[in-house]
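Please fill in the sequence for the structure shown.

STRUCTURE ENCODING:
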């Protein structure tokens, strides 16, 4: 891959990371972003890095085996990204946040673990689809990667219990947009919780999915 393309992608990760941070979708040093490279490797935000203050030159570059090529050491949650990528060869980027409303949904005791948020809007169906809940694991537990891997083949997004969403997309922008849509729909779901809202019907969902495939 040409160096210019890699540098441009580094800049895009930094720009979108700052946008997510500035709008309160991630805080402190939480959250991480990765993007697949044409040579089979990845760019990944570094460990303990604030998405609002990323230095593009220090973003981790990994080879196909997940070994660091240059930049700072990658996020400690690297295994979440690789778990998704191994099952989703069509995905070009992944975003993992600890965004407030999505995490709040992941803590509710009465959500459907096979589909945490009902299809309230067409854009949620288009960009996220069905959202399964991954049972709670302590941060860094390799079994969490196994649990994500078991769902990633059928789902472009998963919600980690008491933790946050992991969202894949065809491109970096697509993954960010889907993450934003998930967070906004989680907020809407919480506002409507207990009010028996009218969601989209299975027929309406099927029509949307047929017309607007995610990847």
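FILLED IN BY: designer on duty
SEQUENCE:
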């Amino acid at each position: 891959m040409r160096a210019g393309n890699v540098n441009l992608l580094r800049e895009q990760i930094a720009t979108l990371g700052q946008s997510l941070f500035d709008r309160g979708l991630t805080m402190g040093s939480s959250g991480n972003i990765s993007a697949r490279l044409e040579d089979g490797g990845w760019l990944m935000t570094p460990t303990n890095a604030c998405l609002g203050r990323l230095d593009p030159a220090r973003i981790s570059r990994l080879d196909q085996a997940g070994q660091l090529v240059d930049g700072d050491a990658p996020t400690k949650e690297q295994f979440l990204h690789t778990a998704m990528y191994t099952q989703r060869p069509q995905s070009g980027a992944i975003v993992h946040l600890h965004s407030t409303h999505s995490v709040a949904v992941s803590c509710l005791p009465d959500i459907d673990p096979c589909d945490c948020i009902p299809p309230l809007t067409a854009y949620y169906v288009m960009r996220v689809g069905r959202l399964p809940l991954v049972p709670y694991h302590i941060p860094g537990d390799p079994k969490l990667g196994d649990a994500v891997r078991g769902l990633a083949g059928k789902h472009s997004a998963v919600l980690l219990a008491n933790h946050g969403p992991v969202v894949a997309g065809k491109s970096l922008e697509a993954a960010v947009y889907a993450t934003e849509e998930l967070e906004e729909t989680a907020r809407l779901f919480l506002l409507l919780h207990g009010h028996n809202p009218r969601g989209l019907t299975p027929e309406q969902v099927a029509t949307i999915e047929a017309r607007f495939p995610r990847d």
